[in-house]
C-alpha cells in the first residue's frame, strides 16, 4: 500500500495517525505541498483533484480525500461507533472538519508556516481566517466542556480527523490555551495508545 503524502499536511497526518493506531504498514511517497508542478503527472490517473493524501491500495485501486480514507480503514473498528446515531454524529464532525475547521486553521497555517510567502494573504483575508479559526475553536471548546471525546465514550474517526489541524493551530497564530476544553482534549488524544506525532 502506497500513501502519497506530505509530512506537514494535517490531512495526510490524520491518515498516518489512523494507520498507526490500527498497526497497518504502508509505504510513503512525499509530495511537495508548495510546488504543485508535477501533480498531474504524479496523481492524474489516481486522484482527479490532484491532492494529497492519495492512497493506492495493495490491489492498485486509488482512494483520495482524507476523511474518505479514514472511513475506509475505520469501518469495522472501534473508531467507528456501532450505534447508528453516534455514527451519524461522527460523520457530522467529519463534514464539519472539512467545511469549517480545515478552511480556517489549515489555510492560515499553510501561508504563515509553509508557503514561503507569509505576506501572500491580504490583511482582510487574514482577519477573516483568524476570526473563523476562533469560531471553530470556540465551537469545539463548548462541545468538549462536558465530554472526553467528540462522540461517545472513546476515540473515533471524528477525534482523529479534527485533532490533525487543531493540534498545530499555533502555527497559524491561534493559542489554544484560551480554549481549556480543547487543550485537555488534545492532550487526551495524544495520550491514546498507538498515537504518533505529526513528524513521526
Q: Describe it for me?
A:
By secondary structure, this protein is of the alpha+beta class. It folds into two domains: 73 residues, Glutaredoxin; 107 residues, Glutathione S-transferase Yfyf (Class Pi), Chain A, domain 2, CATH 1.20.1050.10. The protein is built from seven helices and four strands. It has a four-stranded mixed beta sheet with strand order 2-1-3-4, with helices on one face. Strand 3 and strand 4 form a beta hairpin. The longest helix has 31 residues. The mean pLDDT is 95.
Give the secondary structure arrangement, pairings included:
Elements: E1 2-5, H1 10-22, E2 27-30, H2 39-43, E3 54-56, E4 62-64, H3 66-74, H4 84-114, H5 123-144, H6 157-166, H7 180-190
Parallel strand pairs: 1-2
Antiparallel strand pairs: 1-3, 3-4
Helix pairs in contact: 1-3, 1-6, 4-5, 4-6, 5-7
